[in-house]
Specification:
Layout: H1 2-18, E1 20-30, E2 34-37, E3 46-50, E4 55-62, E5 67-70, E6 75-77, E7 81-84, E8 93-102, E9 105-110, E10 113-119, E11 122-123, H2 132-143, E12 147-151, E13 163-169, H3 175-181, E14 186-187, H4 197-210, H5 276-279, E15 285-286, E16 302-303
Parallel strand pairs: 10-13
Antiparallel strand pairs: 1-4, 1-7, 2-3, 4-5, 5-6, 8-9, 8-12, 9-10, 11-14, 12-13, 15-16
Length: about 300
């Protein structure tokens, strides 16, 4: 009798294994509460419960595909699971977002170096303009602390050494386009970096039609001009490291009694509040935080831009 029991168990095991076809590991979401079974069918013993909305990992299926095997060995009827196909990371340079500068600029870490990234083909309101805070926060919600994938167009960098990139999330979200679609950014063309112009223009048309963000009231839309070709920034000379950009400079040791936020020259610490006209002929100089004199209105690390 004992031998017969063992033989039956072996036969059942072989039958079950013959019903399983291997497939790539993927995930699924339970559509309604369901029983988990020890094999692919309702005649098998209940091995547990699954709840609605629960995420499960699928490692196989039976020959007819109407039952899924889960990573714990249990089985569930296929019609009770919505399968989520795994999303491959986008092509591009992986980078870790370390800081949100504003709505269209971030700092990222690549190979333990920090680089500033300027989103291609979009422009968001500058500090002091309507929607500056909202655009910066929208950018933060999308990418802060995440791994992003950077894709270049033609130019590597702008004249400030910032990487010019299209930015994607691991799930495929195109960040440049999403900010425009949500109404926090406007299309801004700087030829020759215009390969995604049609896609981003369509996103702006959607935002305008829906009255989102910048387009909530056409009469009150802040001026966020799209630069013309004549205003295009010259291409920076690439450096021979991938990615081609200059890492953000560390704070240089400041001379005694000089404000360390302005390392390019000496502004005495504790001096009276200064404006950009007071700094002429000094323009486009390095600004580190805290920027007590507010030379760097858009917080891109460059003061009194001309």
């Amino acid at each position: 009798m004992k031998r017969l029991t063992i033989l039956i168990a072996l036969l059942l095991s072989l039958l079950t294994s013959s019903l399983v076809s291997a497939q790539a590991t993927t995930t699924g979401s339970i559509t309604t509460g369901a029983n988990l079974r020890t094999g692919p069918g309702t005649t098998y013993t209940i091995a547990g419960k699954a709840t609605k909305g629960q995420t499960v990992v699928i490692v196989g299926q039976n020959a007819t595909g109407d039952w899924y095997q889960l990573e714990g060995g249990q089985w569930i009827a296929a019609f009770l699971v919505t399968v989520t196909e795994p999303v491959a990371p986008p092509a591009g340079q992986a980078a870790q977002v370390s800081n949100i500068v504003d709505g269209d600029t971030i700092d990222v870490t690549i190979n333990q170096q920090t680089y500033r990234v300027r989103y291609i083909l979009i422009n968001t309101p500058e500090k002091g303009q309507t929607y500056f805070t909202e655009a910066t926060e929208a950018n933060r919600q999308l990418v802060a602390g995440k791994t992003v994938y950077l894709v270049k167009d033609v130019n590597e960098t702008d004249r400030y050494g910032r990487l010019l990139r299209y930015v994607y999330l691991a799930d495929g979200t195109f960040v440049n386009r999403e900010l425009v679609r949500l109404g926090f950014a406007a299309l801004a063309t700087f030829p020759p970096d215009v390969s995604k112009e049609t896609e981003i223009r369509a996103a702006q048309q959607e935002a305008v039609a829906a009255g989102r963000g910048l387009w909530a009231d056409a009469a009150d839309v802040p001026v966020v001009p799209a630069p013309t070709q004549a205003a295009s920034q010259p291409t920076a000379t690439p450096v021979v490291i991938p990615p081609t950009a200059t890492p953000l400079p560390p704070a240089a040791p400041a001379p005694q009694n000089c404000d360390p936020s302005y390392p390019d020259f000496c502004i005495p610490s504790g001096s009276a509040d200064l404006d950009c006209p007071d700094m002429l002929p000094n323009v486009n100089f390095t600004v580190l935080q805290p920027d007590r004199h507010r030379f760097d209105g858009d917080k891109d690390g460059v003061g009194c831009e001309r």
